[in-house]
């Protein structure tokens, strides 16, 4: 029997958090090996673990997978969270990429220079309420089903609920005008595997603060 997936990254959200969410939602236990110093990263490189000299990297099924999208695609396919055919997969990919665009804006917010932060928050709120949330609300309304694609749980639903949690950390009122997304968040959050992941003490990471940024700067020398 193969061992648990092992995740190599720093002890924070960043580009690994969506991978943690997806594994947890699939009910997959995983281990984490944190990159805490430049030496940790250098060792991974020297040992030939990092195809492109960077993390995140996940050891799974005898592979050392790099690149977040490739990792997420593999996990989704392996655990039946990727639709029933290529049309459903195309929709899942399209929705997931849209979510990723907004997620990227939120993820990089803590790195924003202080004098630009307020403008960045205004932009995130505007994109959330005028572009991304209306699009996904419309999808749910168009078919009246419980999930975004194929009336079945997919990676798109997991990524959506992860994103909603981040948006609510920024401003809980941003979800107020999107009842179908609110219902989706509740539905997915109550799945036993997701509910467990949302409990204190899980491998879910807290919001990125100044301390986490400093830890990342130290490890990755940026």
Notes on the protein architecture:
- By secondary structure, this protein is α+β, with helices and mostly antiparallel strands.
- The protein has 9 helices and 4 strands; from the N terminus they run E-H-E-H-E-E-H-H-H-H-H-H-H.
- The chain has helices spanning 17-25, 38-46, 68-78, 86-107, 114-143, 155-170, 179-189, 192-197, 210-220; strands at residues 6-9, 31-34, 57-60, 63-66.
- A 4-stranded mixed β-sheet has the order 2-1-3-4, with helices on one face.
- A hairpin with a 2-residue loop joins strand 3 and strand 4.
- The model has no long low-confidence stretch (mean pLDDT 96).
Q: Alpha-carbon distance between the termini?
A: 39 Å
Largest sheet: 4 strands, mixed
Average of pLDDT:
96
* H/E series: EHEHEEHHHHHHH
> Care to count the β-strands?
4
- Order of strands across the widest beta sheet? 2-1-3-4
The stretches of 5 or more residues where confidence is low (pLDDT under 50) are none
Helical amount: 55-70%
**Tally of individual helices:** 9
Label the structural class: alpha+beta
The percent range for strand residues is 5-15%
Shape, principal axes of CA atoms: globular
The radius of gyration computed from the alpha-carbon positions, rounded to a whole number of angstroms, is 18 Å
What's a quick, concise take on this entry?
This protein has 222 residues and is an alpha+beta fold. 56% of the residues lie in helices and 7% in strands. It has 9 helices and 4 strands, in the order βαβαββααααααα.
């Amino acid at each position: 029997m193969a061992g648990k997936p092992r995740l190599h990254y720093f002890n924070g959200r960043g580009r690994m958090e969506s991978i943690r969410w997806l594994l947890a939602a699939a009910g997959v236990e995983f281990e984490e090996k944190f990159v805490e110093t430049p030496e940790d990263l250098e060792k991974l490189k020297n040992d030939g673990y990092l195809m492109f000299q960077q993390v995140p990297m996940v050891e799974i099924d005898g592979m050392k997978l790099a690149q977040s999208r490739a990792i997420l695609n593999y996990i989704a396919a392996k655990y039946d969270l990727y639709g029933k055919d290529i049309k459903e997969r195309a929709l899942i990919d399209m929705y997931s990429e849209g979510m990723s665009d907004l997620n990227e804006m939120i993820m990089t917010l803590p790195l924003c220079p202080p004098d630009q932060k307020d403008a960045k928050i205004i932009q995130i709120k505007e994109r959330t309420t005028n572009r991304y949330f209306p699009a996904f609300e419309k999808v749910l309304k168009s078919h009246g089903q419980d999930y975004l694609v194929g009336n079945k749980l997919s990676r798109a639903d997991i990524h959506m609920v992860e994103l909603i949690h981040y948006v609510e950390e920024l401003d809980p009122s941003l979800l107020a005008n999107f009842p179908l997304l609110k219902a989706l968040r509740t539905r997915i959050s109550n799945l036993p595997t997701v509910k467990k992941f949302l409990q204190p003490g899980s491998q879910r990471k807290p919001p990125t603060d100044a301390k986490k940024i400093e830890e990342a700067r130290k490890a990755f020398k940026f």
